[in-house]
Here is the input.
Amino acid sequence: MAQATLRVSRGGPEGAEAVEYRVPVAPGMVVLDALHYIQGHLAPDLAVRWNCKAGTCGSCSAEVNGRPRLTCKTRLDALPLDKPIVVSPMKAFPVIKDLVTDVSWNYRVNRRIPPFSPAPDVKWKMYQEDVDRVQEFRKCIECFLCQNVCHVLRDHDKKDSFGGPRFFVRVAALEMHPLDGLSRTKLGIGLCNITKCCTEVCPEDIHITDNAIIPLKERVVDDFYDPLTRLWRKFSGAKSDKAGKKA
Ligand code: SF4
Ligand code: SF4
Ligand code: FES
Here is the structure.
């Protein structure tokens, strides 16, 4: 039977080292299967977060050969097996143990975003095109791979001033909802320089930059720099840019 070598990061906040394990490769195996083999046969104390093993819970996020991935969706036969497969925790978040990171900061950002709030005189009718526009954003499984790859968080650790692509997706879904009446904080979106790295790693193929971030940036510009919008706000007394929403 073919064998693979996994070089797995072991350790906690105090420091980590890479430990190699040899794993038999069965047809269809994914990296999470290999980690489970290690847990079952070689290192029962290996810490791995997972739940569904079906690409839907978003728990098993890690870095495989340096790329942020769901380990349950990364097949061994798609990786070069002639050298060790390097598995490490998401770099943007503090390590708790081995491959498990503390992603609780994301939930704190999420709590800052006001939920759907219908406009006072809303007519409860939506067109299919409006449903289609926000449907894409609802596919997010909160794996936080996009947060992990974004250089603003990963390299510059701007967690105090930047919400990150996952939450731009959430804000976009609310801002583009035609029945919603609030204008939400844009969570430091000006720091995003549209590198599209977040879109490239999203396992749900959400077009994060094109469909969420760029429209949000346009709304920020409309809100603060467009003279007609400013005039409209001044004379109508409106606090938000909801006039810019597609009605
Ligand atoms: S496009 Fe923006 S949010 Fe996405 S990874 Fe690049 S800087 Fe971060
Ligand atoms: S937008 Fe995509 S990459 Fe980001 S958390 Fe959601 S599913 Fe994961
Ligand atoms: S275990 Fe649920 S997404 Fe991988």
Observations:
- Confidence is low (pLDDT under 50) at residues 237-247.
- Residues 150 and 156 are 9 Å apart (CA to CA).
